[in-house]
Amino acid sequence: MPADSHARQGRLEVICGCMFSGKTRRLIEELEVAQCGGQAVRAFKHRLDRRYGLDCLATHDGKRFAASAVTDAAQALTGSVGSEVVGIDEAQFFGRALAHACQMMRARGQRVIVAGIDHDAWGRPFPPLPQLKEMADQVEILHAPCRVCGAPARFSQRMVPVTDPDMVGGPGEYEPRCARCFQPLPPPAPNY
Questions:
Q1: How far apart are CA 20 and CA 156, in angstroms?
Q2: Structure-derived torsion over alpha carbons of residues 68, 121, 162, 27, reported in degrees to the nearest 10
Q3: Catalytic site residue from 90, 140, 173, 175
Q4: Count of other CB atoms within 10 angstroms of residue 2
Q5: Are the beta carbons of 52 and 82 closer than 8 angstroms?
Q6: How remote is the C-alpha of 133 from its chain's centroid?
Q7: Quick one: CA torsion of 54, 57, 45, 103, rounded to 10 degrees?
Q8: Mode of pairing for the β-strands spanning 64-66 and 56-58
């Protein structure tokens, strides 16, 4: 048998949906299961996301998992060396470079679990989620109830004026909306 036949098979899993659909909670659950199973787990978040601190992934209701804050996908790639399972939250903050970093981690035999918003506040596909979903081994799309009508929501409605170009926010700044109730922000939309 060839020496590399025992090498771990890499895997990419994507968890996506609108804000408040439970993406981070689902990511934390998967990381906890892997950790309880004795696997070497490493989690990353983008340094832009300072909402609940830089040292953990955090849900809006307070569930936490230790994480490292990084400024780009290259830092997550470098920092994940030696880990069997890698979790990356808020993929939309990393841009298109995250797709390449995830390919590299998967090629190293790592299980990579990425969570992120797949539509921006203008209703457009939010990079790098389209690219990640296309190359993923598994895609899980989560929904929240639309805050207007209760139907399954796929969009994140911006509720306050845009004063920060990164548009990081939480309760009060966004709410989940279905396609019928969603109102895209007016132009101009950013170029990705």
A1: 9
A2: -20
A3: 90
A4: 6
A5: no
A6: 11
A7: 160
A8: antiparallel
The predicted-structure confidence for 6-65, as pLDDT tens digits, reads as follows: 568 999 999 999 999 999 999 999 999 999 999 999 999 999 988 888 899 999 888 999
Query: Which H/E stretch holds residue 36?
Result: helix 23-36
Query: Can you list the domains of the chain with their CATH numbers?
Result: 6-144 (3.40.50.300)
In one-letter notation, the amino acid at residue 77 is L
Buried b (16+ CB within 10 A) or exposed e, 24-63: bbbbbebbeebeeeeeebbbbbbebbeebeeebbbbeeee
Do you know the residue count of the chain?
192
| Residue 142 near residue 27, CB atoms below 8 Å | no
Contacts of 142 (CB under 8 A, 6+ apart): 15, 16, 17, 21, 22, 23, 26
Tell me if the pTM is above 0.90.
Answer: yes
Active site residue 32: no
